[in-house]
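Tutorial, part two.
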Amino acid sequence: MALLNATKILPTLCCAAVLTACGGGSNSNNATPETEVTTPAECSTVVLDGNCLPVPSTYAFNNINEDNSVSYTGQTTRLILIDDMVRTINSVVEGGIPTANEPNTDIVGALDFFFRFDAATSGDLASTFSIDGENILPTDGSNLTYNAISSNKDLIGKIAGGDGAGNGETQRLVSDFFGWEDGLDTGALPVDLVDYFFAQLETEATDGTTPQISVNGESVPLNTVTVDAFGRDYRQLIQKFLLGSVVFSQGTTDYLQASDFAGSLTKPEGKAYTTAEHLWDEAFGYFGAARNYSAFTDQEASAKGGRDDFANSYNDANGDGLIDIRSEVNFGNSVNCAKRDLATANNPNPTNFTEEAYNAFIKGRAILNEAAKTGTLGMEAQLELNMHIDTASLVWEKCIASTVVHYINDVASDIGEYNTTNASFASLDNFKNVAKHWSEMKGFALNLQFNAQSPFRANNETLAELTTLLADMGDAPVLADGTQLGQPYEGGVTAYLGKLEFIRDTLQTTYSFDADNIANW
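Running the prediction step on this input gives:
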């Protein structure tokens, strides 16, 4: 993807034989780059058994009968469920969720609608998903219902550690869950933290009390119910934690790392893909990238401007006049990767997370597409595939870790605005900003434990570093009066800032981040 300007093109992923080129960067004249044919002297992409394997510019693959073999609608549905849950949280006001009659005080139930989604009773309801008010529809123009995207999907069935009753992904928790203590019992699972967040949000909205925030020495009522008096923003905590405990966990620890691709080369009855191809597609679906991800500049994928057809992080790639939510929209961490790349564009050593992750996904899929046609995944192909699994998992995690750094920087800046004269906040927005940024920092940081191949899981010492890192963040920020969760924090604000700096240094070392990039994030 373009880092320095809108016309930078990625190195072409082509081979010595005539094949489809990998586009990349952006093409300032076309929404989707034209297919190129090239015959360089040496293969620059995947070589298997002495042959150069074609790699397309977009995530599009056909089987031997030329039928589309790409499918990951279930993963898109879960990303939509998270997005729609956030929209519901944003609608909560004092007293509950506004309705035509009395406010709905059952906030937990309203959020469980998405978390414990029942497709049998609610699958035909319309999603509220939109971007800048524009409806995003399936390609056939039908109503955007959950079952129209994919049927029989929920979130709780895919959360790491399972649903707490022995069901779901009980084997997908890499180790005991850690990183949050307030309100949880020993041995708590990720599902317990989600339920805790839901309950806390309901309390804030329905307890009939309004927290008073000290602003320049005077008490000011807090004008939002999604934030508590301790500076926890539950809208941010819920969203970011689910992007890790469901989405990142599934994409890496489950699909990329636990799948037996070599042993899954048969087609399920009635499907155009092999099981191996589908498992890989599901990981890509959780990453959240549009299929023509490489056609977006980082500015466009970040929804921060660019060409009209790309500027909001979606693109009508097939030109049918509709935006297909299943293939033409960027979600979740694929957007965060672009944001972090964009922030380093003018640095001496800019990151290129978008290109690295996308290339790993598309090259790995090309290998499996070839294996589906030949019926075998040889040793050389498996080794090549393993390399792309490692790359996709690590770069995806780097996007999350660099986003943690981004919010560490924001929290430090927010704390720098505190009114030190009377140990209060400079403004109500100062308090709300530190709550928002701290909650995004903590929510994303909790995600780093869900990748079985994380650098933090290299050995017991590195895992202990992650445990300490999360503990040092605490379960709330240190406020302007020097307290955390209502108790005096030893060393006050200055000591907490020191811990945040140490955490940032730890992340820099763990992921080999460039110092200039750390500063710019």
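The chain has 15 helices and eight strands. In part three we will examine how such features are distributed along the chain.
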